[in-house]
Amino acid sequence: MANFSIFFFTSILLLPLLCQSFSTANPTDKRILVLLDDLAIKSSHSIFFKSLQQRGFKLDFKLADDPKISLHRYGQYLYDGLILFSPSINKFGGSFDLASVLEFVDSGHDLILAADSSASDLIREIANECGADFDEDSSAMVIDHTSYAVSNSEGDHTLIASDDFINSNVILGSKMIEAPVLFKGIGHTLNPVNSQVLKVLSASSSAYSANPETKFTSPPSLTGSRISLVSVVQARNNARILISGSLDLFSNRLFRSGVQMAGSLTKYPKSGNEQFATELSKWVFHERGHLKAVNVRHNKVGETDEPAMYRINDDLEYFVEIYEWSGTSWEPYVSDDVQVQFYMMSPYVLKTISADQKGLYYTSFKVPDVYGVFQFKVEYHRLGYTSLNLAKQIPVRPFRHNEYERFLTAAFPYYGSSFSTMAGFFVFTIIYLYNK
Amino acid sequence: MARNIVIVFLASILFFCFSSISICNATSSIFNPVSFEHRSAALELFSATDGSFTSLEETYEALRTFQILGVEKKAEISPVACPLVVETLTSPSSNPEKLFNALRVQQILKCGVDADLFEGVASKLEAVIKDASSLLDFYHSVGSLVLIKNEVPESNIVLGDADSTFHSIKALSQSDGRWRYGYSGAESSTYAAGLALEALAGVVSLASSELDESMIVTVKNDIRKLFDSLEKYDDGSFYFDEKVVDTAEHQNALSTTSSVVRGITSFSAVTPGKIDIPGDKILGLAKFFLGIEVPGTAKDLFNQIDSLACLENNRVSIPLIISLPAIVLSLSRKDLLKVQVKTVLGSDAPPVTVKLVQAYKTSAKETPVLENQELKFDPKSSIHHLDLLPLGIDIGNYIFVFRVLLQDPGQKQIYATGGQTHIPVYVTGFITVDSAEIAVLDNDLGSIETKKELDLSKENILSLSANHLQKLRLSFQLTSPLGHLFKPHQVFLKLRHVTEVEHIFVVGNSGKRFEIILDFLGLVEKFYYLSGRYEMQLTVGDSAMENSFIRGLGQVELDLPEAPEKATRPPPQPVDPYTRYGPKEEIMHIFRAPEKRPPQELSLIFLGLTVVPFLLFLVGLLRLGVNLKNFPTSAIPATFAFLFHAGLGAVLSLYLLFWLKLDLFTTLKALGFLGVFLFFVGHRTLSHLASTAAKLKAA
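Structure tokens for the assembled complex are given below, as produced in the milestone run.
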């Protein structure tokens, strides 16, 4: 009993040290659980794993049916990320299941999920919960007869070369991926109303998802460029998810393989897979595109203290500093499209804030002539970046009675008439009383 | 039917002809021998900074891999590794494992160690063997002795009591062919079995006299039992794996299999007679190693390459690997069917004949298109080839069934060729597309209203129009290079509305023509009653078709009836993610405009005007001739009258002050005092005036 209580108290003391997820306070925690179908994947996909390890991630490899898998102990997560390279697993080992994967993501952790044509219902369900619907036909693969990779050892055109990337430097890195990415696996679609999920690698318009062995009479459910080969999700809690329909995409074989797209004469000595997978993993594990805003402040022009209240028509200044996590440190984030709103029910002022090179954003504007409780709002949602939602409340009051203009020239005739009447009255009283 | 029976019969005869049972695997995959990719991977994985590795074991693994792959790196490694070897061999604290690794490195590098030093190490090791109690001790010390014996051939190192050593190792074996690491309570393991077999092989080669024949036979039986635990992949490869996953010495399937292969090959090399293991199992093991392709870690690469080197030249049976440089054969390029038969490390096989036993389409397994073709051998490139063009093979996906026959029947015991090998082959070619046309038909009569020819070799920009009572017909013909009707896997007609709603139809074939008739009357609901322009796009593709295409056909303007109220709405279309983000339009607040005021001059003029009545009043008074004769003459009433008017003046001045600066409260306070004062002096003044007036009346 005594032991237990000692343990209990130490664990409470340790609580702040154990990090929950990617937090702006502890961004350097990088423990990742890798679940595999077969330990051979550790060797056959070693380049990908090695690139993660070189970037400082601690990978913990486990078989997906290992009964000792557990994501958390004593209510604390043991890992900051999860890589599911176990497409055919039907049931995870231990108490780990679909709900715990979702809970893990819901608490802001990152997930990489790769499926292939042997994808089990469990894996499909996880992807589905994340917003990607894999083709329901379990024997289907993505086939493309016009943009396949020319190969001597693959003839059924299921090894696709795709270069239809998402146009986003933050997700795929600033260096352009020149060679097409090789993909062999299953396709998925994204729910059009889900704005959290993005297609990173799309199939070409001639692609379709079907079983290459059998003929079909009704059109396949997934066709054309709607097929997403690789998608990413950025949840509202900034958890990031990568869903790939191909596990081979990450394999050493396709990393090293050369690629020549059908109908094209350019032969690339190395496919774009390594760059694609590495850059994507950098994004997923928050080495890019994670923003934080600090030192939000505002004041009247000419003052430095933050007032408790503004009067209508005051001139004010607004400052915010924005930084981006680079994997090792917070770097100033400089962009010309950050906007601040002065908001009450709807924005009264919406202004683009300009930044200096140190990530300090500044703007000034006049408080509108409407009084009430306003908010300074920065809602920064950009493709691939974590969203910034800053709100700071500030009341705005009208003029006080003595703050209006005192002597209006236009009113002088009225004053003049009343004072002349008064003078007349004064004279009249004297004359009236003493005239004889 | 009868023909099928004959085939089955022939096949079964062929089965019996070969002692090995052929692996007929449905999911055939191709295994390629070790290639240059392994070499570049080895250089990458065993990359040591200036020739140093973390341990002697790793140094050995690197050296051995480079040696097998023919990569020359000794010169770089030996300056660093050799001093380490000498140091390990001279150090008295070196355990057998360290000595073993040092000797293995020395064996490859030839560091020039003194023979005396070897003698000393050997005597030390012999002492270790005498009271060794664990399998690893036996393995390392016996292995080291064998290495020393190879190193110094003139030294007559022999195990005096080879029999008892053999027994001590054998005592660790289990009934299922696996071994234990130690005498007390250790788990049995397949990996250990490989180590034990290697140690036993060492004991046999070190023995001064012939060992007991019966003991070797028992070990051979153990090996056979070990093969009962062999596991199999779908592609016909075999491997060993540990049953108990949860031990400290857990090894993966590759290192376990590798250990067993090393054990068996070294044991069979030193013992007389043949170990009775089916050749296809050895071939399956070779396929397992080759199936890994290029491993990602140094350890795995060493295990793979070392095991393949063991298999390359072993006494059980040497696997021969059949591989195709290309499985996609183009009829338009007139590609030959090329087959290579090589050993696992990629060297040439003994003279063999490669036969194409059968070739059938994947869609029609029962009807072979080719049977019993012998491939021609080209000794220059050591490739067996066959020209498919004269054989009338049309384009399509085939399974080719090969058999490798050794030209010297005496070699059947030495080599494992593995019976029939099924390999998928894709024969591709150009498909001719012709008589493509598109027409709009009237529903009732089927009469053609408009008909347009299409050229599917380029984009078309047709413009058609149709209403819901009409039909659209698209038809074309596809012919294979040999003039047959070709049915591609993918023949889609896509109609895309301007709102991005897409409809896809599979174009079927009726007889020779591909034809689709879209009856818009039946499709209005499917089209969500969306009238307007539809883009048409035709996709034809197949893995055997070299000119798969996706072509725009043009537009069709559809005039569909109005949607009834209950009609289903078209599904939401994906939103372009780029438009969802990005800055919003700026909003500036529009301030209330200040009220309009008259010009200042006007106000001042009017100010002047307001004084005019007062002035007129004064002038009027003067004209009337007013006087102040009634003003009290006595001192006290005059004072009160004066104070009264001063008070009135003060009140009026207070109003002026109120306007200029005072607030209401100060004004009211002052007014209060002034009011009381005014009331008093006013009362006195007025009562005085009244009494004066009354006196006047009375008088």
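The first strand of chain A starts at residue 31 and ends at 36. Residues 412-434 of chain A form the longest helix (23 residues). Further analysis is deferred to the final report.
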